[in-house]
UniProtKB/TrEMBL annotation:
Source taxon at top rank: Eukaryota
UniProt organism field: Candida metapsilosis
Described function: Involved in gross chromosomal rearrangements (GCRs) and telomere healing.
Protein name: Increased recombination centers protein 6
Pfam family, one: Adaptin_binding
GO biological process: vesicle-mediated transport
GO molecular function, one term: protein-macromolecule adaptor activity
Length: 274
């Protein structure tokens, strides 16, 4: 089966290898190319990912700017290097790579938040140019991290999330995990969910046993019927309807393209529930 390609790009100490480790941790056969102390550009992590619906092969490709990580760089240097990378990315020589990508993840160190406005401008331009291509149907996200051993203030993380959301770009805070008040996965769990729910270019669909599927469905329908007849019972069905209501409120504040992707995720979850 052909691999699906995801590009992970960011400056040094912004979590690129941690992201690839998180996505590949369930695959004992995963391999990673040699990590150089001079630059993480060119590192490739191969792995497989399986859900109860499909299995895929993944090739996680890591790119880094500046080209030499041993020299300290200013925010202005990061911006200049990212702008140059963008110019190279949209050359004719890179068309084959662009067409092969199922997703791009931009990483940044949340303790260098003064870099964020310029990063967002560059990502906006990259997204706009990708969307001009009819062949692009991948995902795009910004992942915020802090170097191992460092901390970041809660108010700063909240401000970063608010700023990125106003651009209609998915933001994932890798310092978080679990489920928020909307019963949505956040942080590391959301990043895994992003991979698990994407409509990949190449997938091997799992054939579910029809008898097992029907028995499971009948059992759930019976539980739902029992719960509906028991007015005093707070149950999973009520939780699901509550989540749909909260999701509708959240979707109203998203741009149209993000709203459609979000709605698809909620529908998939509801179909899995029933």
């Amino acid at each position: 089966m052909l691999p699906n390609h995801v590009l992970i790009i960011g400056p040094p100490n912004s979590g690129k290898l941690r992201i690839s480790d998180l996505i590949s941790k369930g695959d004992e056969t995963s391999t990673r190319s040699v990590v150089s102390s001079d630059s993480h550009s060119g590192i490739i992590q191969t792995c497989s990912l399986s859900t109860k619906y499909y299995s895929i092969n993944l090739k996680l490709m890591i790119d880094e700017y500046p080209s030499n990580r041993n020299n300290s760089a200013s925010v202005d240097k990061y911006i200049k290097e990212l702008s140059e990378w963008k110019g190279d990315f949209f050359t004719d020589e890179m068309k084959e790579l662009r067409d092969a990508l199922d997703g791009i993840i931009f990483t940044f160190n949340m303790n260098i938040d003064q870099f964020l406005p310029n990063l967002l401008n560059e990502v906006d331009e990259i997204r706009a140019q990708l969307e001009l291509s009819s062949s692009w149907d991948g995902f795009l996200a910004i992942v915020g991290t802090v170097p191992l051993g460092e901390g970041v203030e809660l108010y700063k993380m909240d401000a970063i999330e608010d700023e990125i959301i106003t651009h209609g770009i998915e933001f994932i805070n890798l310092e978080k995990s679990g489920i928020n008040e909307y019963r949505e996965r956040v942080g590391k769990d959301r990043l895994v969910e992003l991979f698990e729910t994407h409509d990949w270019s190449t997938m091997d669909l799992v054939e579910r046993d029809q008898v097992e599927y029907q028995e499971s469905k009948n059992s759930k329908l019976q539980d739902m019927q029992t719960s509906l007849l028991n007015e005093g019972n707070s149950n999973d069905l009520e939780d699901m309807f509550s989540k749909i209501s909260l999701a509708r409120e959240k979707a109203n504040g998203l741009p149209q393209d993000e709203r459609e992707k979000y709605a698809k995720e909620i529908v998939d979850e509801f179909m899995e529930f029933i």
